[in-house]
Design goal:
This protein has 225 residues and is mainly alpha-helical. The chain has one domain. It is built from 8 helices and 4 strands, in the order H-H-H-H-E-E-E-H-H-E-H-H. Helix 1 runs parallel beside helix 8.
Length: 225
């Protein structure tokens, strides 16, 4: 059985107080965003804030990592490129995920792909990867497969909300099975990259972010779908 070098618990890079502050920011901004999105009168305003919310979460996750470890920035850039590239192929070639296109909610687009989508892929991959290490799963293969499957479940939860809020849309409003197969394969690839970067220390903030995302979209699905 193969295990990561960082399975043994190690002290956080930042103080527990700093970690708690970052977790409070995640919970607070998701709570405010949730309230804004479930209220029809406020929804148009809060939809415009979605890209900025994702950018704030990027800052929070990066801040939770060891400041001197430049590899987190290299990893983020690489996942951004892979994620954006995959979305370009998906939208313009209808490969990987199926026939879909993006709406206006995710903000500034380049070749019909929101730039923020690469950031979102990083947040999901990083958080799922760290979660698997926090769970002390010893096998790299098991961590990658379990995390990829977890992200498919997250996508199952997100899809109806994303369509309703004009994140993206599917031809004939039918979500193909290829979308989930594509999510699994792409996630597994990027999670493998995560493992190869071999970060020395990880943070509890990232798994909390993933959990809050699940709660956030679960509540939205119950209320607005």
């Amino acid at each position: 059985m193969e295990g990561p070098q960082n399975l043994k618990p190690k002290p956080y890079e930042s103080s527990k107080k700093s970690q708690l502050t970052l977790i409070i920011i995640i919970v607070l901004f998701h709570t405010v965003g949730l309230i804004g999105l479930v209220m029809p009168s406020l929804r148009p305003i809060f939809l415009q804030l979605v890209p900025w919310h994702i950018l704030l979460m990027l800052i929070v996750i990066i801040a939770s990592h060891r400041p001197s470890d430049y590899r987190i920035l290299l990893f983020a850039l690489l996942i951004f490129i892979i994620g954006y590239g995959a979305e370009w192929i998906g939208v313009h070639k209808s490969w990987l995920f199926g026939n879909y296109g993006y709406g206006t909610t995710l903000g500034l687009q380049f070749y019909d792909i929101p730039l923020i989508i690469g950031v979102n892929w990083f947040l999901l991959i990083y958080s799922a990867g760290v979660l698997m290490q926090q769970l002390r799963i010893r096998s790299v293969f098991a961590r990658v497969i379990t995390a990829a499957f977890t992200l498919v479940l997250v996508d199952l939860l997100i899809e109806p909300v994303a369509i309703k809020l004009d994140y993206w849309h599917w031809t004939d409003n039918i979500i193909p099975l290829s979308n989930y197969a594509g999510w699994f394969l792409l996630s597994a690839l990027m999670l493998f990259v995560f493992e190869k970067f071999n970060f020395k220390k990880q943070s509890v903030v990232a798994p909390v972010f993933l959990l809050i995302q699940v709660v956030f979209f679960a509540v939205l699905r119950l209320i607005i779908i």
